[in-house]
């Protein structure tokens, strides 16, 4: 599943949320009910619980049950979609403790929209976890699309579902924040667990110093020239980067079962290709259609890993994962090759091409042209950031004009632009930046994967940097097309239809809860 949310809701009572969720009736005050009411759901029908481990006040709070919910809700204005659709949601709720005695609430759901095109071909699976942390609750959310039938619209549907995740996360946070502001959803829900004598005794008591922040402020960033002079920031960039902030679209990581929320295991795939099956010159993927695989270090979607912050060319020559890890966390062990599964003695798997399905890969090179191996590293939380790291992030701003006789510069809009230059704001390889949220753009405050304290990287301010090669007074470079090579860009716009500008920002590592 793809993680999309990791936030801390201060002053929220997890016990009250559990009691409302485990009640016989879901009404106002239940997080599921209020969540769908924010989607303007109507004609809601909730079936009775099917308990696997029924709640028992006389025993430990360990519960597992399933429940189905049907309703009608409006559909956003999307081509080929009706104004509203019937929806069925299968819920699986679990309440348990980890090895450290922390109570964890799991809410898994599988949603089917019956009236949208190909609605019976797939379901949207989501998982929400809530964990007591400090003086509130740590909330994480992830999603995936589960396909049961094929569809030629699969990519478009998954893109629409992905874009809708920002709105669903906002609604979930709004519901939980409303509960925190009220003190609790309601006083009593009649849940059999609400009378447990131990229900209020498990609140984790952490020293406030664990969330001590690094010196610095979060004031709005100002835009200055890299040499100290002021640069006029375009309105579009202010809209793009201004006050917006979003949860970082997390890289592929897996929470450790031993210490939920205190350490994570990073996974990164190393990809290599050889010239022919008769050669043994294995190296980073080099064919034009390899795309982001040319970075060599990728996630399980074969996109350049979000924490590889150098260009694909620089990353391709590295023999070990060029990843320093998320903020406020340090390596517990060295990067190592995973040896589990069907692999050779060095951990490599071989295939004719870079397939995503595991059953396409084997342990023998034979006639295969491609190989991959999985690297892992465990990162643990640092209670305090003594020497904060800094990350210099650079992005290109790309623009195109209608003709060389006009000055209507705007985001790339030609059909062939969509093949590679999908966004106006891209990384140094002209790919969508992994910290891009799909709507407002790169955040001024980028949340980082850290289940323990929701650590963040605070931006010191975006500036227009001086690019390699000639540029005009506004730091723009001009070319006939959106070329990668710096030698094809100049400082004169005459007769040229594309331009680009380099923006830079320094992010400082922090360890702070920010809502």
UniProtKB/TrEMBL annotation:
Residues 1-184 form the VASt domain. The keyword Membrane applies. The keyword Membrane applies. It is found in: Membrane. Its main location: membrane. PROSITE patterns: VAST. It holds the Pfam family VASt. Keywords: Membrane. This is VASt domain-containing protein. It comes from Durusdinium trenchii.
């Amino acid at each position: 599943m793809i993680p999309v949310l990791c936030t801390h809701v201060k002053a929220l009572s997890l016990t009250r949320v559990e009691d409302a969720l485990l009640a016989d009736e879901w009404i106002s005050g239940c997080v599921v009910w209020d969540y769908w009411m924010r989607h303007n759901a109507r004609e809601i029908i909730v079936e009775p619980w099917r308990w696997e481990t029924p709640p028992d006040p006389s025993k430990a709070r360990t519960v597992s049950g399933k429940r189905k919910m049907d309703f009608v809700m409006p559909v956003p204005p999307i081509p080929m979609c009706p104004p509203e659709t019937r929806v069925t949601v299968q819920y699986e709720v679990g309440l348990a403790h980890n090895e450290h005695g922390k109570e964890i609430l799991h809410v898994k759901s599988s949603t089917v929209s019956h009236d949208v095109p190909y609605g019976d071909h797939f379901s949207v699976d989501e998982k929400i976890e809530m964990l007591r942390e400090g003086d509130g609750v740590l909330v994480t959310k992830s999603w995936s699309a589960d396909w049961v039938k094929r569809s030629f619209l699969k990519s478009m549907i998954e893109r629409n579902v992905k874009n809708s995740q920002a709105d669903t996360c906002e609604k979930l946070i709004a519901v939980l924040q409303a509960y925190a502001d009220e003190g609790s959803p309601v006083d009593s829900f009649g849940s059999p667990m609400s009378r447990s004598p131990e229900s209020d005794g498990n609140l984790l008591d952490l020293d406030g110093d664990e969330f001590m922040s690094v010196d610095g402020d979060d004031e709005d960033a100002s835009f200055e020239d890299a040499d100290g002079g002021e640069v006029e920031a375009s309105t579009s960039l202010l809209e793009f980067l201004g006050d917006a902030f979003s949860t970082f679209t997390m890289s592929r990581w897996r929470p450790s079962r031993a210490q939920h929320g205190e350490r994570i295991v990073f996974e990164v795939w190393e990809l290599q290709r050889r010239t022919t099956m008769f050669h043994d010159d294995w190296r980073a993927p080099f064919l034009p259609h390899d795309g982001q695989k040319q970075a060599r270090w990728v996630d399980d979607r074969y996109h350049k890993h979000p924490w590889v912050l150098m260009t694909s060319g620089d990353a391709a020559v590295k023999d070990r994962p060029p990843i320093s890890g998320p903020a406020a966390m340090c390596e517990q062990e060295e990067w190592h090759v995973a040896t589990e599964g069907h692999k050779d003695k060095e951990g490599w798997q071989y295939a004719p091409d870079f397939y995503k399905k595991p059953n396409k890969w084997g342990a023998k090179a034979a006639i295969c042209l491609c190989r991959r191996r999985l690297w892992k590293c465990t990162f643990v939380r640092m209670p305090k950031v003594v020497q904060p790291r800094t990350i210099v992030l650079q992005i290109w701003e790309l623009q195109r004009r209608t003709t060389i006789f006009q000055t209507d510069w705007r985001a790339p809009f030609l059909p062939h632009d969509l093949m590679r230059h999908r966004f106006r704001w891209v990384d140094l390889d002209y790919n969508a930046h992994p910290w891009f949220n799909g709507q407002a753009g790169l955040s001024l405050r980028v949340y980082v994967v850290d289940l323990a304290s929701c650590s963040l990287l605070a931006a010191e301010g975006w500036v227009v940097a001086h690019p390699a090669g000639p540029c005009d007074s506004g730091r723009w470079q001009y070319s006939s097309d959106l070329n990668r090579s710096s030698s094809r860009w100049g400082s004169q716009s005459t007769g040229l239809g594309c331009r680009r500008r380099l923006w830079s920002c320094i992010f400082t590592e922090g360890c702070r809860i920010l809502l």
